[in-house]
């Protein structure tokens, strides 16, 4: 469910479309590996210098690190072979193995490397580790993954920081579907290589995403539905203006004959589960809404369509999309129902599909909503957000324009249009259009000084442009307008880190966000990433787990599990190899 108060965050679930680059780089503390799932957590400066590497397929001529004797790959055994030292004979066997390897004769190469291993004096750790690693490389060519893993393990036991062996073992574990072991090895490789090798970082990202998806699928299926905070719910409903179910009680809900007979109206209220649900909504007693709506639906009451839509909306809010869908389907198929209800149901189902990473179905629902209710500004506002997620910026701007045409006072649509134009200019690296977009933000906040979202989106653009002081002022304006919006405190906290590297101030603001809304998963996630940066891995894992329990979709949950697994892998690597990436 896309809430208007968090358009940018909503985008964070489906990729990086709505998150500004600085935010990702900062929150995740390092190399940015794009996608809906994991983004690796360390090596803050390394993203800029990350270099690709050719596949590590060749065997080694000498032990690494350390000198280690080598007669050169593929050299013939010279005369006097018999008088050579045991190490010399082992090296000669290895060299012959390298010749076979390069010729694609892997079985013979394996025999030579085996001979090198048996000839090598046991105290020559580095040489011996190279022979095992070379034999693993030959096994890899034959796709004998168990043997690859075993030989790499021997190599690593002899030379614990042996990057080639660790990475080859990581790839073997991937083939054997040992995700946890693969992650540990590739984490060690990333740290040893100072995050400069794209290949190992991509494998880390891939395995983290797979682990995240696997765990989230299981957890989400068995999760306890959880009502979000009242602030989140109100902010969600504020993103709709043509939404009958969120209008004040009884507005447009009394039939003509009831209007003059208040007694009868109150009687209807007594008997109508839907009207009781609306009363509870006004009182912010949200836990009773689903059960009251169900009574109206079971009684096939006068407000059945409204009750189905209200129940579906709260199912979505508690993260139970599978229960919401049949209710939304039913409302959408009710030809005789109020078209505003059907359009609203299509917007909500479309947003649900987008969260489930089904953009084609999502687009179909939004297009159908526009067909059946072309004057409904909400359709264009929410479809515009969808288009931003899909990186279809021009279409997003068209939708926001249509929303503004239908509802000229929609500050939200104007602010989001500015953000879309800014993103387009920023990704196109066009200084003039960036300037024009920034001026657009100035116009919006002048015209709509009470729209917190305008200041929040402007603050993100300002941060992108390194105008930290002004961004900070914009967040303060947001806080003045919406003192109970936890998300703003998180963004302001992140800004302190990027601007002044002020960890204490950053954490203080994020703690304030949790104090305001202890169900703010974004705050726990951010705190977790900061604790990773500080090297407090146990604390980080605790924060990620809190965020996981609050996640509103399986996709968000998968992303959080990826972060948690990355932190956990780092603790294991620290224990095993005494390795730690630099901390703040």
Structure at a glance:
Among the domains are: about 85-220, Serine Threonine Protein Phosphatase 5, Tetratricopeptide repeat (Alpha Horseshoe), CATH 1.25.40.10; about 225-245 and about 270-375, Alpha Horseshoe (Serine Threonine Protein Phosphatase 5, Tetratricopeptide repeat), CATH 1.25.40. Helices cover about 70% and strands about 0% of the residues. It has 29 helices and no strands.
Q: What percentage of the residues does DSSP assign to strands (E)? A: under 5%
Instruction: Give the name of the CATH superfamily of the domain at 86-222.
Output: Tetratricopeptide repeat domain
What would you call the quaternary organization? single chain
Helix content: 55-70%
Order of helices and strands: HHHHHHHHHHHHHHHHHHHHHHHHHHHHH
Helix tally equals 29
Assign the CATH architecture of the domain at 86-222: Alpha Horseshoe
Q: What distance separates the N and C termini?
A: 35 Å
Highest CATH level, the class of the domain at 86-222: Mainly Alpha
Q: Please state the CA-atom Rg, rounded to the nearest Å.
A: 30 Å
Uncertain runs: 1-56, 62-78, 251-268
Strand elements, count? 0
Rough outline? elongated
Q: State the CATH topology of the domain at 86-222.
A: Serine Threonine Protein Phosphatase 5, Tetratricopeptide repeat
Which structural class should the secondary elements be placed in?
A: mainly alpha
Q: How is the biggest beta sheet arranged?
A: none
Mean pLDDT: 84
Structural summary, described in words:
There is one protein chain. Helix content is 68%, strand content 0%. It is mainly α and 584 residues long. Among the domains are: 137 residues, Tetratricopeptide repeat domain (Serine Threonine Protein Phosphatase 5, Tetratricopeptide repeat); 121 residues, Serine Threonine Protein Phosphatase 5, Tetratricopeptide repeat (Alpha Horseshoe). Helix 5 packs antiparallel against helix 6 and helix 21 runs antiparallel to helix 22. The longest helix has 24 residues. The radius of gyration is 30 Å and the shape is elongated. The N terminus is likely disordered.
